[in-house]
Specification:
Elements: H1 3-16, E1 26-28, E2 35-37, H2 38-43, H3 59-66, E3 72-74, H4 93-104, E4 110-117, E5 120-127, H5 138-154, E6 158-164, H6 172-176, H7 178-191, E7 196-204, E8 218-221, H8 232-239, H9 250-255, E9 261-262, H10 265-279
Parallel strand pairs: 5-6, 6-7, 7-8, 8-9
Antiparallel strand pairs: 1-2, 3-4, 4-5
């Protein structure tokens, strides 16, 4: 035994067999400061297990948890004209779009999909706040119209998850025009007699709350979500008065009649299944993943039909 065997060889083996530890194994809760393991946080739908703080979640991850088996089909959305105003501030608008697409892996700020929840077919749309603050531009308007048209065509209810900082300033008046466009899309659903359910998440602000986000048949919000047209800081500076505690938060709006429910994200799927089936006039959902048990005494093979006189109708 020599120094090569005792020192050099173990050193070389440790270098080549070293495993790199990812930097994103733990996430710190913004509300209580608890360190949360990434796998447990993901399984809890980005809800802090210590203080119940609801962190941001992408539309794709939300749909994986919402739809049966995480199976859904994306609905194609017509692409609008890119940079119609040739807008530029610190960056060009196309450059901001490319940066957002690279950071999120999505084409735009809204995802539309079809699938089943609790064996109930629906159409769903969700905004991505991490994509340019979920701002409402022409694409978002096209997405909501595409979702409404798909719902009418398939005769399915539409469930929309809102999360936006308002209209997209890079598209100017064209962004504000999405407010009446989406209002007409919602009216299409109402004329077809189809339910429209809105889930307001943190934050839902600006022109979104003046259009499609507040036109649902049922309004549900996640806990402590900020829901407003103008933010509390703007209001305080305007009226020069201190606002009440929790002003414009989900619980405050529920107490003042602007919301129907405030539901934890981990219970949202069951809530949506029950409400959707109720609005469609369907029986309550069956608990569990297995189908409802057959009534006792029913054979596996269908009974042969009998004629009114008691004879075998299949031989008639």
């Amino acid at each position: 035994m020599n120094w090569i065997t005792n020192y050099v060889r173990p050193r070389i083996n440790s270098i080549f067999s070293r495993r790199e530890t990812p930097d994103n194994l733990w996430t710190k809760c913004e509300e209580c400061g608890t360190m949360l393991f990434h796998r447990e946080l993901s399984e809890n739908l980005n809800v802090c297990s210590n203080c119940d703080h609801h962190m941001a979640i992408t539309p794709r991850d939300r749909f994986l948890a919402l739809f049966d088996g995480g199976i859904f089909s994306e609905v194609a959305v017509p692409a609008p004209v890119m940079d119609p105003l040739n807008f530029r501030d610190q960056k060009k608008y196309p450059d901001r779009m490319k940066a957002a697409q690279k950071a999120t892996g999505e084409e735009e700020a809204m995802l539309v999909a079809t699938g089943e929840i609790g064996r109930t077919p629906i159409v769903a749309a969700a905004q991505d706040f991490s994509f340019m603050a979920g701002s409402m531009g022409m694409y978002v308007g096209n997405a909501i119209i595409a979702a409404a048209q798909e719902a009418v065509k398939l005769r399915r209810p539409l469930i929309l998850f809102s999360a936006a900082g308002g209209a997209r300033m890079q598209e100017g008046i064209l962004s504000l025009m999405q407010m009446p466009r989406t209002t007409v899309a919602v009216e299409m659903l109402k004329e077809a007699g189809l339910p429209y359910i809105v889930v307001l998440t943190h934050p839902t602000t600006g022109g979104v709350t003046a259009s499609y986000a507040m036109l649902g048949d049922v309004h549900i919000a996640e806990p402590n979500a900020l829901i407003c047209f103008a933010g509390p800081r703007v209001i305080e500076q305007t009226i020069r008065e201190k606002l009440p505690e929790g002003f414009q938060r989900a619980e405050y709006l529920l107490d003042h009649g602007m919301l129907d429910r405030v539901t934890n994200r981990t219970k949202m799927r069951d809530e949506l299944i029950g409400i959707t089936r109720m609005l469609l006039g369907m029986p309550p959902p069956v608990a569990g993943e297995l189908p409802a048990p057959e009534p006792s005494g029913v054979s596996e093979k269908p009974a042969e039909a009998e004629a009114p006189d008691g004879s075998d109708a299949s031989k008639a």
